[in-house]
Amino acid sequence: MRPLTAEGLRGVWATLLLPLEPDDTIDFARLGTQLDHLVEAGLHGLYAHGTAGEFQTLTESEYDRINELLATRCEAADLPFQLGASHPSAQLQLDRVRRAAALRPSAIQVILPDWLPLTPGEVLVFLDRVAQAADGVPLVLYNPPHAKTQVGPEQLADLARAVPALVGSKSAGGDAAWFDAARESGLALFVPGHRLASMTPLGADGSYSNVAALSPTGSVRWYELMQSDHQAALDVERRIGEFFAAHIAPLQEIGLSNPALDKFLAAVGGWADVGTRVRWPMASADPRLAAAARTSARRLLPELDAGNW
Asked: What is the rounded distance in angstroms from the CA atom of residue 250 to the CA atom of residue 52?
């Protein structure tokens, strides 16, 4: 697959979600069907092994099997794909990077090792070695708010200068001052899906999208609306916020994790048989709540409806 550049990394990307059996094994038949839907959705690309993909729960054989599946389908469809190599252990992550690089994805997503916080020097040493292991495959740094080591926009610019393989950043974004500083990095800046319309004028380039978990095709239509009628797209974002406040925030308040929330969104969207189960020891959303949320989504977000609601 053609490697991504900072200038070429744009748009709405959707993740694979793990369809789980009652014993927490992955149902690869359902995963393949899910992938079929995503390949046909018109997305700018697909990725695996972010937070929603429960990367920290995977065995190495599961990790490799998912990579092979995603790479094979995306290569056949000529659809860009990224492989997450993330792992809290630097050593295991480095090995995942090597194995992911062998499949020549469009980019590899990495996190910073996540038990003890790293100094700026340690961050640089880590990314430099990861870039060597990636063997020419570009890197995207995933730095969510819960990461032990937070990378600010000024440090991001320093890293971009020091590690040419780095082409993108995946973070929560920020205000205008944050984007002004982050743009100095020259990297593609990706932000949360439900904030993409309001952050695009500030400098966001795209999203690894939780809205795509709700409606893959709808998330693409919304992105296109951002280009043609930004005020209308902002109104969709306002209504997404209303939907999240009614149906997602209560699940957050009882402690459900981001993978549980994204799987719940997929259950509401009904575009694939993902299920709401997440791997032990994390708690899952009650699937019985999806029907009421679907009714709200149909009312609030007709622009995202792909005929499943």
From this structure: 18
